[in-house]
Amino acid sequence: MKRQHVQSSALESVGYDPEKKILELEFRDNGDVWQYFRLSAAVYNKFIHAESLGNYFVTKIKGKYREMKVA
User: Fold this and answer.
1) Contact predicate 38/66, CB 8 Å
2) Which end of the chain, N or C, is less packed with Cβ atoms under 10 Å?
């Protein structure tokens, strides 16, 4: 999945596949890449426009969607 670099202290890059509803995040601290499944386009849009991507991820995504480490 193609990811875009983001301005975040927690995240290096973010990708989203709207057809498969998969969010892909690359974390800055360790370089790990995780995917989050069944994430709607509406939630993705709120996430990508949030004032703090890291805070939105922790409060609205982490632990609420099925996840898988991919790298």
Assistant:
1) yes
2) C
Only one residue has tokens 């057809």, namely 19
From the list 10, 7, 3, 6, the residue with the least C-alpha distance to 70 is 3
Cβ–Cβ under 8 Å, residues 39 and 52 = no
**And the tokens for 26?**
């690359």
| Residue labelled with tokens 């703090």 | 52
Query: Which residues is 16 bridged to in the sheet?
Result: 23
What pTM, to 2 d.p., does this model score?
A: 0.95
CA distances from 56 to 45, 46, 59 (A): 11, 9, 5
pLDDT tens profile 10-51: 999 999 999 999 999 999 999 999 999 999 999 999 999 999
Contacts of 1 by beta carbon, 8 Å cutoff, 6+ apart: 15, 16, 17, 22, 24, 35
